[in-house]
Amino acid sequence: MRTDAELVNAVLSGEKDLFAVLVKRYERPVRAVALDVLGDYHSATDVSQDAFVRAYERLAGLRKPEAFGHWLMKITRRCALDSARRRPKETRLEIRLRRTAVIENPNGRLDEDKQRLLAAVVKLPGAEKQVVMLRYFGDNSVNDVANSLGRSVGTVTKQLSRAHRRLRKILERSEK
Amino acid sequence: MTAKETIEKRLEKLAQAIRPDESLIESVMSRIDSTSIANPSAAVTVQNVWRIIMKSPITKLAAAAVIIIAVLIGINPFNVSLDGTTAAYAKVKEAVRNVPWMYISYTGYMLDEMGNKKSEEDRTDTEIWYSFKSQIVIQRYYSGLITYSDYTNQEIHTYNPVSKRIVVTALSSKKLPLEANTPWSWLERNIQRMIPFGGEVTRKTGQYDGQEVEVFEIVSAIKPGMAAIRGKIFVDTATSLPIAEERRYINTKTGKPQRVEKGTFEYPEHGPANIYEIGLPSDIPMINSLPLPSWWDIKRVYQSYRRKTTDRYIAIVTSELSILGTPIESVDIFYTDGTRFREERHFMFRPGPIGVQWRQQAAEIGNTFDSILKWSQACKARGQISISIYERNYYHNSRREDDGVWKTTKQIIEGRKWSISEFWNSCPIADMGWPDIRGSADVIQDDYARENKLIRVEVQGKEFYLNPNRDYICQRRIDNKYSQVTDVTEFGRTEASQWYPKRIKGLGKNKMVYLETDPEFPEGIFDPENLPK
Fold this sequence. Notes:
The complex is a heterodimer.
Chain A: H1 4-12, H2 19-38, H3 41-57, H4 68-86, H5 92-100, H6 112-123, H7 126-137, H8 142-149, H9 153-175
Chain B: H1 3-17, H2 22-34, H3 46-54, H4 57-72, H5 87-97, E1 102-110, E2 126-131, E3 136-141, E4 146-150, E5 155-160, E6 165-170, H6 183-194, E7 199-208, E8 211-220, E9 228-236, E10 242-250, E11 257-266, E12 286-288, H7 295-307, E13 313-321, E14 328-336, E15 340-347, H8 355-365, H9 369-377, E16 385-391, E17 394-400, E18 406-412, H10 420-426, H11 428-433, E19 442-443, H12 447-451, E20 455-459, E21 462-467, E22 473-479, E23 484-493, E24 499-505, E25 509-516
Parallel strand pairs in B: 6-12
Antiparallel strand pairs in B: 1-2, 1-11, 2-3, 3-4, 4-5, 5-6, 7-8, 8-9, 9-10, 10-11, 13-14, 13-25, 14-15, 15-16, 16-17, 17-18, 19-20, 20-21, 21-22, 22-23, 23-24, 24-25
Helix pairs in contact in B: 4-6
C-alpha cells in the first residue's frame, strides 16, 4: 500500500490516475466532513467532488505531502461552508424535520445521535481525526491506517485510543 | 458493554451510515480530466507536459495525430480553438468516426552531428493498433514486447519476449490513453494539449510514395529547453485520412536535427482479436495474474444479497445430530406473509435415551416439506415446543414444557413495529447463508477457493468462502479458534431465482432447509387465538 505522500508525489510527477487512489481512500472521510457542515447527503456528495477537484488543482502547493489527508479535510470544510452560505435558508419546519429525522439511507440524513458523534469527530485534533476517519470510514485495519499515513502501528494505536477518550469526553459533555 | 466499546460501536454505526460511493471517484476523475490543467504541478511548465506526452510511443502518436487532425480540419492547432461549424471539421469528424481500426507503424532514431543515423540502440520501432469501437490498444515494441490492452474488460495482456509468456493483469486506467473513449473526444483532448506549445502550419500539394497528397508542414515555436519540431504530414486527398508522417527534432542551439520519427497509417476493417494474432505461437502460455477485488468491493455485493429479504415464505430448518442414523434433534418453522411472523421450535426428544424415540419420530415426521409441516401442526414432538406470533407491536407465545402443559404469554411492546428484515434475520437461513462478516477483512485465495471458484475472506481468525455464482452464499466457514468447519453441501433456488443454502454440514450437527416462497398458508396460522393452549 502506498502512503499518501508517495501517491501525492506520483500524481505530481504525472501519474494523474493515481489521484483516484487518494479519492478512494478519503472519499468517505471527506463526505463525513461535508456532512457535518451541510447535514444532508446530496449536498455533501456535491461538495466532496468540489473539494477533491480543488485539492487536485492545488496539489502542487501542498508543502508536506504526508499531510495530504489533514489538508484535504480543511479544503472540504471550506468548500462546505461556501456551499452552505450559498444555499437558501431552511424553514423552521424543515429544520425541525431534519432534527427529528431518523432516516439512515444514502438519500437521507443522519439521526441526531450520529450527527452529534460526527460533530465530535470533526472537532478532534488533526492527527487523531485522520486516524479515526481512515479507521472507521475507510474500513481500514490499524495496520492499513499506519501504512497509508506512513506512521508506526504503535503511534496510530495511541492516537486512536486518545481519540476514543476525547470523543467520550466531548459526547458526555454534549449529552448532559 | 464498556464505555470504550460503546464509542467504537457508535463510530462503526456512524461509518455504516456514510456508505461508500464509487461514483464519486468517477465524477472527480472525470472533472479532473476535463479541467484545463493537464497535471497539477507541471501545467505551468510546458516542457514537463511535453516530456510527459513524449514519454511513451502511444502518447507520441497522440501528439502527432493532433497535428494531423487539426490541420485536416483546417485550423491551426497552435493558436486557434476548435470551430465545430466548419465543413472541414464535420468532414474529418465523420471520416474519423467511421474508422474501425487504426494501424500505425512508427520508427524513430537519433542523428549524429553529420545528420547520419546513430547506432541501432536508439531505435524505437513500434507498431500500434488502436480501436475506439472495441476499446483496444495493442503495441508491439522493437524489443519484442507486446501489450494488448482491453479497456472493456479492464485487462492488459503482456507478452514478455525474455520469459516467453503472456501475463494477464488489471489495467490501471479505465479509459483509453489520453482518456478518450470516442475518436472525437480523443482528437479534442489532443488538440487541447497541443495548443500551449505554439507554432505554425502551412499547406500545399505534393507526392508521397508516388501518390498525390496534401502535405502539411509544421514548424513549432521555439521554447527554451525544448527541441523545435519540423514535421510533415501526408494526407490522402481522396479519403482525407493521413497516410504518413515525418518529424525532425531540431536542436535550437545548433540548428541541427537530433532525432527523426516516421510513421505510416493504415485503416484496416479488422484488428487482431487477441494477443496471439499479433504473431505469437499458440503454445505460448498465458498466466492469469488479475488481482482480487478488495474486501470493500466484495462486501457491498455480499451485503446486498445478505439484506435481500423475501416477504412471503414458509421455511423449515431441521437440525440433525451427526450420530448414527443422523436423527433430527429439532425442527424450526417460520411463516411470514410480510406483516405477520410465526416462529415455531419443536424439540424432538425428552431427556433420556433417544434410540427408541428416534425410530418412532422418523416414521412420523417424514422427509418432505409437506410431511414435516403436517407433523408440526399436530405438535407431535416429544420434547419442548415453542410457538410465537409477531404482529404490529404484539408478541404472543405458547410453550409446551417437558411436563406436557401449554403456557401462553402475550406482550405489547410500545413503540415497536416488526419489519420484514427482522423476520428474515430471525430465520436462520439468512445467517447460515450470509453470516455477518464484520471489520476489515483480507481477501486471500487458497487452493480450496481457487479449485471451487470461491472468494476466501479472512477476518479475526475466521475464514469465509463466498460463492459468487450462488448469490455470494458463504459456502464454507472455518472458525480457527474452535477448529470448526461448516459447509453448505447443497443449494436450493426459489421461484424468483434466489439461491439459498439447502444442506449445511457442521461440527456435530447438520441442517436441512425446506423453503417455499409462494406458499398457501394454513387457515388461521397467524391468528393468536389458534395457538395451542
